[in-house]
């Protein structure tokens, strides 16, 4: 079957605009559960906050396959409310400190309201030329309040979360702009994978879902892996593109297909898994590209769990991630979705054993 593109774009908009900083993923979790429900037999949950829908095989003693996204996006947490109504904050996840001045961010209040504001910056008129890039702890969010009392009257307190205030926008035929494509991409592809496979009988029990707190050190992945105990795992995550001046070694190029991540700071792809993915991609004419990253994904924790879990990352790249905006290419998403679904359809006991022990 095929999924209508308009339906996919509606899901992209909904997912990327949700508020989900690390440790504050409940809105994303609720959406994922709602979207997965028609296609799964049950849900399983870990105590960190991860959620997985299970599509069971009719085959007895089926192997388990895990498809893991992460729900969280980089964001901030309020650390101080000043007397004149400004909000100081600390980062949740890895962010550069020099890109946030004058950006629109939004706070989620204790009663669930999202309140927008602007990050403070010194106007050119008052600069001396010696300021340098500010540290995160020197920035403040201005939500238009005049006092700490006014802030608290809006049900905002220390410890509340902040994320970018960025609408999902189509830029051209194939390219889109949003916040949080890292990693609502993975949440989206998991939902649509199960929709694509809803009438397909698999040889495996398929666990599809998302972990919490990836952006602050891959914290939710191990709990999920130890809960599910998969025989094989696929991580679906978005990676930074560095192609603004053209191709730059193996750092991802928009529009050139899904990423086959052969090495990063947390995991090396097993050659047998690499060759399996390449065969599926070649056989099905799926655009793909090699990728190397100094960073990591939840695969870094999953592949070490239990007795060891063969793990591959099927990704897409986007420009400017871990900021208020990212730009990505719809064709890369289509390629990733095709590679993931075809790979799972081609898994059987023999193939899984080869991935485990060869």
TrEMBL record:
InterPro entries: Peptidase_M42 (IPR008007), Peptidase_M42_aminopept (IPR051464), Peptidase_M42_dom2 (IPR023367)
Cofactor notes: Binds 2 divalent metal cations per subunit.
Residues that, per the record, bind Zn(2+) 1: 70, 182, 237
Sequence positions that bind Zn(2+) 2: 182, 215, 322
Cofactor(s) the protein requires to work: a divalent metal cation
GO MF term set: aminopeptidase activity; metal ion binding
Domain of life, per lineage: Bacteria
Active-site residues, record numbering mapped to chain: 214
A biological process from GO: proteolysis
This protein's UniProt keywords: Aminopeptidase, Hydrolase, Metal-binding, Protease
CDD domains: M42_Frv
Pfam families in the record: Peptidase_M42
Family note: Belongs to the peptidase M42 family.
PANTHER family assigned to the protein according to its UniProt record, in alphabetical order: AMINOPEPTIDASE, AMINOPEPTIDASE YPDE-RELATED
Protein name: M42 family metallopeptidase
């Amino acid at each position: 079957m095929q999924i209508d593109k308009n339906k996919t774009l509606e899901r992209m908009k909904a997912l990327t605009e949700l508020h989900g900083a690390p440790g504050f993923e409940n809105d994303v979790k609720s959406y994922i559960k709602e979207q997965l429900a028609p296609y799964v037999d049950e849900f399983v949950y870990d105590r960190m906050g991860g959620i997985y829908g299970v599509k069971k095989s009719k085959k007895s003693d089926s192997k388990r396959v895990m498809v893991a996204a992460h729900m969280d996006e980089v964001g901030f947490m309020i650390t101080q409310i000043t007397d004149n109504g400004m909000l100081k904050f600390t980062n949740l996840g890895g962010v550069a400190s020099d890109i946030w001045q004058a950006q629109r961010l939004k706070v989620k209040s204790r009663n669930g309201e999202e309140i927008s504001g602007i990050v403070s910056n010194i106007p050119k008129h008052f600069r001396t030329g010696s300021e340098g890039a500010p540290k995160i702890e020197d920035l403040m969010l201005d939500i238009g309040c005049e006092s700490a009392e006014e802030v608290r009257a809006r049900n905002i307190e220390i410890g509340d979360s902040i994320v970018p205030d960025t609408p999902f926008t189509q830029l051209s035929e194939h390219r889109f702009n949003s916040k949080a494509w890292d990693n609502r991409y993975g949440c989206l592809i998991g939902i649509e994978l199960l929709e694509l496979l809803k009438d397909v009988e698999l040889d495996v029990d398929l666990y599809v879902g998302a972990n919490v707190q990836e952006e602050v050190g891959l914290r939710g992945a191990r709990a999920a892996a130890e809960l599910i105990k998969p025989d094989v795992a696929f991580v679906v995550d978005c990676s930074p593109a560095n192609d603004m001046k053209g191709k730059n070694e193996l750092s991802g190029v928009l529009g050139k297909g899904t990423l086959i991540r052969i090495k990063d700071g947390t995991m090396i792809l097993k050659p047998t898994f690499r060759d399996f993915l390449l065969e599926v991609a070649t056989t099905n004419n799926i655009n793909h590209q090699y990728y190397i990253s100094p960073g990591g994904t939840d695969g870094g924790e999953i592949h070490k769990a239990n007795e060891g879990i063969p793990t591959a990352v099927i990704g897409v790249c986007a420009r400017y991630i871990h900021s208020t905006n990212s730009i990505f290419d719809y064709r890369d998403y289509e390629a990733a979705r095709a590679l993931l679904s075809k790979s799972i359809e081609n898994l059987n006991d023999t193939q899984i054993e080869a991935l485990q022990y060869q």
